[in-house]
Write a structure and sequence with these properties.
heterodimer, A: alpha+beta, 4-stranded antiparallel sheet, 32% helix, rod-shaped, B: mainly alpha, globular
């Protein structure tokens, strides 16, 4: 007879008494079919391994970081739209923040002193906040105006306000980032949920650490949480 | 009040259709792996991400079994995929080439990790005069581990109901009659799935073995 059907050989590998007599006879004498039965028996013996264990997510991040830094000699993830040299001195606006904070603290202490253990009877109406730094947003490939961004200090919050214009109508969500002036680090601070305006509360030390470049990107819905590399607007808070 | 009915879903039917369908599925799967390898070779970074997502568990588990240390296994996994990217131009795309190639790189990285350990052990031994703690590693044991993991991944990638049937038959050692009752399929269909599943596992394993040579 011609060679046995693989299905029947698989049957023999699972149970040597299984299958029609002529198939068993053939497999007993034909080296090729006997080899196939032996190979399938070998596979059967290799079953039973426990489920595979995925590595922790940090390994994936490290691989991609290594690959990206290794392939491009410059560690700069995005071209930073900034011709000015990085300033080392404390910028004026930071000094203003510090002054504003000192003033607030002073006011707070004064209030505490006069009211003693009594709860303050009225909270002053929330003010619009003090703009301590501002940026003009522009397109990256030209200097076309794309709106404004400002850092606002009010009471005990620190907020980045974005009011953009002409971001285009490409599909995707618009994500707002703070890029560090070192041109390497960046952090997402949120999405422009509706329209071109948004307010994003941020920890103050983020700004202190140099995250001062406001960037608006367009993000496709691809499940990748990193910057798409496509920036619609950018400007440095100063 | 208006009641909006849910769209009626017809129950999935298993039978002859399923027996022929997986064959087409397998061809598609092979073609997809070949295309993925081709994208990697042509410098597509997103291909590396897909390759990582599909085979990092295989590589990581292999390293974990060989080195018995979660930290070292993580390091090896990282090294394997970074090395895969850097040497991507040496890969010849074929369906089994990717896992075979990754396991081949992993084998080298594991032996590097063992060599580094042995050096540390020798150094420690020289200082505190302990016998060197070589961990009696044996390549044939490693290879057997790798093959079992390849088989495990191959089963996990089978379309259902074949995957479930295979796991019940070979991992839980259930009889065909028990499986037929559990999954609600005729005994003949279950037998056919087990046989064809075994042949598929054999093909996958042979492909990896062939590419490893």
């Amino acid at each position: 007879m011609s060679h046995a059907d693989p299905d029947q050989l698989a049957g023999l590998a699972l149970d040597p008494t299984d299958g029609p007599a002529d198939v068993r006879d053939h497999a007993a004498t034909c080296p090729e079919c006997a080899g196939m039965v032996a190979a399938l028996t070998g596979v059967r013996r290799r079953t039973g391994a426990e489920a595979l264990v995925a590595p922790p997510a940090r390994v994936r991040a490290r691989v991609l970081a290594d690959v990206r830094t290794g392939d491009q000699p410059e560690p700069v993830a995005l071209p930073v739209h900034d011709e000015q040299p990085t300033r080392r001195a404390v910028p004026l606006w930071l000094a203003a923040v510090a002054a504003a904070l000192a003033l607030l603290a002073g006011v707070g202490l004064g209030r505490w002193d006069t009211t003693g253990t009594e709860a303050p009877e009225a909270v002053p109406p929330p003010d619009a906040g003090t703009v301590v730094a501002a940026a003009t947003l522009t397109a990256l490939d030209s200097d076309a105006d794309r709106g404004r961004a400002s850092a606002v200090q009010s009471e005990d919050t620190f907020t980045i306000r974005v009011s953009a214009t002409e971001l285009g109508d490409e599909p995707g969500v618009r994500e707002v980032w703070l890029i560090n002036v070192d041109g390497v680090r960046m952090v997402s601070i949120g999405l422009l949920a509706a329209g071109n305006d948004g307010e994003f509360a941020v920890p103050m030390d983020l700004i202190d650490k140099g995250y001062r470049i406001v960037d608006i990107s367009i993000e496709p819905d691809d499940g990748d949480p990193t910057h798409s590399g496509v920036s619609l607007a950018r400007g440095e808070l100063a | 009040m208006t009641i909006i009915p849910f769209p009626a879903r017809s129950p999935r039917r298993y039978g002859d259709r399923v027996v022929t369908q997986p064959m087409a599925f397998e061809d598609e799967q092979d073609e997809a792996v070949r295309a993925l390898a081709a994208r990697l070779v042509s410098d597509d970074e997103s291909a590396l991400e897909e390759i990582y997502d599909r085979w990092s568990a295989l590589v990581h588990t292999y390293a974990l079994r060989a080195l018995h240390d979660p930290h070292d296994a993580e390091d090896v996994t990282q090294q394997v995929f970074v090395a895969a990217w850097r040497s991507r131009h040496t890969l010849t795309p074929s369906p089994a080439a990717l896992p075979a190639w990754l396991l081949g790189i992993a084998r080298h990285k594991i032996s590097d990790a063992r060599a580094a350990r042995a050096r540390d052990a020798d150094r420690t031994a020289a200082v505190v005069s302990l016998p060197g703690a070589h961990d009696g590693s044996d390549q044939s044991v490693d290879d057997d581990v790798a093959e079992r993991l390849v088989v495990r991944q191959a089963v996990d990638e089978l379309p259902d109901p074949r995957r479930t049937i295979m796991l019940l038959a070979f991992w839980e050692e259930r009889s065909h009659a028990e499986i037929a009752e559990t999954v609600g399929l005729p005994l003949g269909t279950v037998k056919s799935h087990v046989r064809r599943g075994l042949i598929k596992l054999h093909q996958q394993l042979e492909g990896v073995r062939h590419e490893s040579r």
